[in-house]
Amino acid sequence: MSYKVYMSGEIHTDWRDVIRHGTEALGLDITYLAPVTDHPASDAAGDHLGEQTDNFWRDHQSSKVNLIRTKGMIEQADLVVIRFGDKYKQWNAAFDAGYCAALGKPYITLHAEDLIHPLKEVDAQSFAWAKTNEQVVETLRYVLQP
Amino acid sequence: MSYKVYMSGEIHTDWRDVIRHGTEALGLDITYLAPVTDHPASDAAGDHLGEQTDNFWRDHQSSKVNLIRTKGMIEQADLVVIRFGDKYKQWNAAFDAGYCAALGKPYITLHAEDLIHPLKEVDAQSFAWAKTNEQVVETLRYVLQP
Amino acid sequence: MSYKVYMSGEIHTDWRDVIRHGTEALGLDITYLAPVTDHPASDAAGDHLGEQTDNFWRDHQSSKVNLIRTKGMIEQADLVVIRFGDKYKQWNAAFDAGYCAALGKPYITLHAEDLIHPLKEVDAQSFAWAKTNEQVVETLRYVLQP
Amino acid sequence: MSYKVYMSGEIHTDWRDVIRHGTEALGLDITYLAPVTDHPASDAAGDHLGEQTDNFWRDHQSSKVNLIRTKGMIEQADLVVIRFGDKYKQWNAAFDAGYCAALGKPYITLHAEDLIHPLKEVDAQSFAWAKTNEQVVETLRYVLQP
Amino acid sequence: MSYKVYMSGEIHTDWRDVIRHGTEALGLDITYLAPVTDHPASDAAGDHLGEQTDNFWRDHQSSKVNLIRTKGMIEQADLVVIRFGDKYKQWNAAFDAGYCAALGKPYITLHAEDLIHPLKEVDAQSFAWAKTNEQVVETLRYVLQP
Amino acid sequence: MSYKVYMSGEIHTDWRDVIRHGTEALGLDITYLAPVTDHPASDAAGDHLGEQTDNFWRDHQSSKVNLIRTKGMIEQADLVVIRFGDKYKQWNAAFDAGYCAALGKPYITLHAEDLIHPLKEVDAQSFAWAKTNEQVVETLRYVLQP
Amino acid sequence: MSYKVYMSGEIHTDWRDVIRHGTEALGLDITYLAPVTDHPASDAAGDHLGEQTDNFWRDHQSSKVNLIRTKGMIEQADLVVIRFGDKYKQWNAAFDAGYCAALGKPYITLHAEDLIHPLKEVDAQSFAWAKTNEQVVETLRYVLQP
Amino acid sequence: MSYKVYMSGEIHTDWRDVIRHGTEALGLDITYLAPVTDHPASDAAGDHLGEQTDNFWRDHQSSKVNLIRTKGMIEQADLVVIRFGDKYKQWNAAFDAGYCAALGKPYITLHAEDLIHPLKEVDAQSFAWAKTNEQVVETLRYVLQP
After folding, report:
1. DSSP H helical ranges for A1-146
2. pLDDT lower than 70: segments of chain H
3. pTM
4. Which of F91, F97, F124 sits opposite E119 (nearest CB)?
């Protein structure tokens, strides 16, 4: 069974690669989708459309260009994995979770124990909470077994 | 025109009351909906279903009970106002924004200038960004004029 | 806030009345909806359309007439409460749960502890599991508080 | 015409294999999908995410992991076959039927005559009722003829 | 329970009145909706928009004006009753049935026994088949009982 | 551009073959879908599930089996062509048209001039009315041009 | 029958008043909805959220605020009347037509004969084309007759 | 990642070719879809169905045939690019934008600065505004990067 997984959230650690390598080692047939994870490139995604002097509109223009990519990827994914790290606001990750919930698209969260309480609404609609990358790999192995 | 507004997000300041009073003074016919804003009561929303020793499941049980209320309110609202304050993670607010976006339900954000960058994906799908409660009141006055 | 609750499942005990009385005592504004709970009348719901000699078609004809009522009620309900008792197959109750899950309609289950394991798929999509009628009443009180 | 069939329900007999072999012998191009049918593995589907001491939460965690698989499979299937056997509660099978009904996804039931009455609501929305595996094979042959 | 019933099909007998009087006598709270049943007026529904010399376009213009009314009524109805008489092609009635089926809107058919075979696809998705107006009244009484 | 066309309606003339040959001669890449057009086989589609002594239920059982095929085909088609001939009631063809209309699925009708008036509601939602098979072929050629 | 009509398009003539007075004279129970028709106020709809030096963003901010109103009104309307005048680009009116078409919301167009050709795609999905306000009034009278 | 882009709007300049060549030079895997851009052929799209003496019906017939093509293409596209030039009414382009907005289908606009004001409602729902073909190419490069 071919399967598409969108990996949302944290872009400052290598969790996407760890999970990808883990499922490749198991021979699973998964296509991984992700936002542009180069932070400066992502912030500048709309700059080619015109320089903005106002921060709000620069961010607005760039985030809409990013949305063309991410919205399409989420909608075609079979499963979304959403990673919350220990830095930054990460409201985009929670936004993706809400988007999935409304679509009825299954997602699983990946975060440490100390984020349980602030993520309780996000976890309430999640299909699984993983604390480690290995748990995500094992979940994918289970779900995709023949 | 009767109108329903769901007020999502920050529960530690009186922004909901300020907006309500503002539109009442203008004679606008608006029904305001909101989550349970008593923080300890909200955290304990599911405790009557059984005490949980594990924090994750206590939060899980409570947040699902809260969801019965908030999901129904968001779905029947004409407009959602989402407030981000200067404290806490507020992932539930971003989650609500994503939920609205996927439903095609209009929402507006209410937050200070220093949150522009971390909220750029949330603002990208918003129909307005207000910095003050008064701007929300004025937006409602404009939208609901005869 | 006016609210509609559809009460699905067991028809041989008075759980619907207990919950109704409980929320009336609290002054909650709830309209309760339910299938026809007179068992022989329900089995005979389609007999006026023509006597059937074959059991399958008699049941088929009657259950479709019942469905006109129950499908409409579930779709207009804000919340569905699904009761599993200790007798009978009660597949109709599990069917209603699946129907709600696909619609994104919140439901809560009401059953004893010894049914946890066979109901695990039904509970997985539920917004709350109550063991007693009083817990359902308390959940409604919480959800509907001003 | 390539076709996907999801086989829901009873996991203690070889009905899935019998049907698969039957349609293979006819040269039909069908991809069969199914839940994980290894009962202990299915009950333990979520154990890798953390041991749960409370039975309810262990089952909850596992059934949600199973749901990632089964929900996706049902949604992509062209047809769902739902088998009710003579043992166990099998509420998950009735739940799947309700889920299909709400989606407008065609399903057929497979069960013995003595289950007609308790399954009448499930059969009311079914596109066919088969008593034997051979009848399911013949139905698939008919539906998929060139 | 207030209820809306759209009455589709035959416009040359008084079946609508018979059913209406029947449920009024029972005290049922039903709002009946119907197409314009004055045949010449219905054929001329679009003539005020411009005289058409070509029959096809005259009919096209009129049937679209009628559709504004009937489409809205079907979509807001709780139940649709579709009557097939013994004259005319009545393709509009079968069209309404297909429209309801795709929307998941319950409908019941009302026709004599000699139409069973040509209506088999229409009846396959119907929630009941009535042979007499009295059977429709009794079905409504059953569905709407307190 | 690969394209799927479902051909609904009349099963007693060779119109499906004429259109198929016409577009093959033009080199168009079209997959044609159709109901089972062997009339006795179609009437007997459900007989293998059990002999029915009552005509209504025999037809009911068979038409639901046919529906598994036709419902799936209509939903995956890019375009539906619906042929009305000069014999029989053909309510199934009008039913398919209504089904397409509610789904927003484009369909075109194929019928002689003398059916304009009784088909006016069906044609009102159609994307084209063709009088000859050649006109359907030409429509497909136009729509599918590079 | 109570009815909601959204009046989209031209804001420089009094067509909305003429139609409203026309149906009031007939005693029709219609609630009319409309965008803010004060042109300068509409252009300034978002100015209270912050002055924009860039024309594009000023227009962007204002048109999103207007959209909160118009999107909600279109979605709750039973019918949309779209007026194209002889001045300006009026792309917002064509946009509303496309929006209605995708929602399956019936709309009628109101424009002079010399706009037939450029509006052909808009008229193709319309339920009626009126040349005069009186024709719209007559259409509403017909649709809403008892 | 394979990707489908529908190119709506202006048919009198070579903007489609410029963008196609631009992304081919970058090695992007994009399937481009477009309406029939031969203006006289498009106006005559329905003529083979019967000559119409009335301009309105000739245009009506042709635009519905064109709609079979364009509606299907828009619905399967991942992204729609909508070009507004300096001539003609181009209401079909704005119509397509509204259609996309209601479906939640991302679109970007391509137009000169002097059209900012009349296109403000169209741009309000757009995911990007490009002034040049090169900006569209760059947007596609960004969105489709590995």
Report:
1. 15-25, 39-43, 55-76, 91-103, 120-124, 133-143
2. 1
3. 0.97
4. F91
